[in-house]
Amino acid sequence: MIRPSFVPPPPIRRLRDLTRYRAALVSDCTGEKNRVEKLLEDAQIKLSVVASDIFGVSGRDMMAALIAGQRDPKVLAQLARSRMRVKIPQLEEAFVGRFGEHHRFLLAKMLQRVDAISADIAEVDARIDAEIAPFADTVARLDQIPGVGVTAARVIIAEVGLDMSRFPTSSHLTSWAKFAPGVKESAGRKKGRGSTGHGNRYLASALGEAAVGSARTDTFLGERYRRLARRRGSKKAMVAVGRSILVIVWQLLSDPNAHFHDLGPDFYANRLGADRTKRNHIRQLEALGYKVTLEPAA
């Protein structure tokens, strides 16, 4: 049974304070960047339509030129660097707007704010590096999980801790984190799955990002996400894969000598077996209106 009142040791508490503050700073920075994009759109500057990241080197140079008073679309487009230079014609069109003194003033203030917050994030990251140093081996082992990077590993350690004795099984951990969906039941009859509920939002955010990141990998977790997303939607796939990641985390933290072992993207196909796979494909084709006749290959 999970102890209701658990106070983590001081190193984990300090790490938790830092990672949560970092999350707040990142949120503030993202909000300020969104305001910049909205301001440019108000000035009919369509930079975000052409550039995937307007805060890259090219985008920052262009916005600095706007603040300095440059309004010529051709001159602004020529500030593009490396791969952005192939988009110079589109950039020239994007800078045809009505950027005025009002926009210049606000853009300068917003970019100053972005830079200040970014500097704060860098300082907090350095402090997190110092606090996480004693747990470097644990971070490295968690980093082996597809989708879980160093940043997510730090958040997981800060929010879950290292002592898994308070979670007798992985199910206790997933239930505590609200990554175990409830079951709707009335009069003794089950009526499907309920919502997971609201758990630790910092942990949930890290697991959600890790789950989405795993979808881009050719691994068991990546294939699990893609299979579930096709059938149940991306949100339910994210929760299910987040739960799988949390189960792996419990295994790794419970055994200091354990390391992650990927089951492989073909795990489901191998488990189903050739006959079941064949039946599934036939059923899918028949559902699409095809008449299927099988003939063994030579």
Would you kindly provide a written description of the structure presented here, covering whatever features stand out?
The chain folds into 3 domains: 10-132; 135-254, no CATH class; 270-298, no CATH class. The mean pLDDT is 88. It contains 13 helices and 2 strands; from the N terminus they run αααααααααββαααα. The longest helix has 33 residues, at 10-42. With 298 residues, it is mainly alpha-helical. α10 crosses α12.
Question: What's the SSE blueprint?
Answer:
Layout: H1 10-42, H2 47-50, H3 57-68, H4 73-77, H5 88-94, H6 101-132, H7 136-142, H8 150-160, H9 170-176, E1 183-186, E2 189-193, H10 201-214, H11 220-232, H12 234-254, H13 267-287
Evaluate the radius of gyration: 25 Å
DSSP summary, beta strand count: 2
Q: Biggest sheet: strands, sense, closure?
A: 2 strands, antiparallel
Strand order of the largest sheet: 1-2
Order of helices and strands: HHHHHHHHHEEHHHH
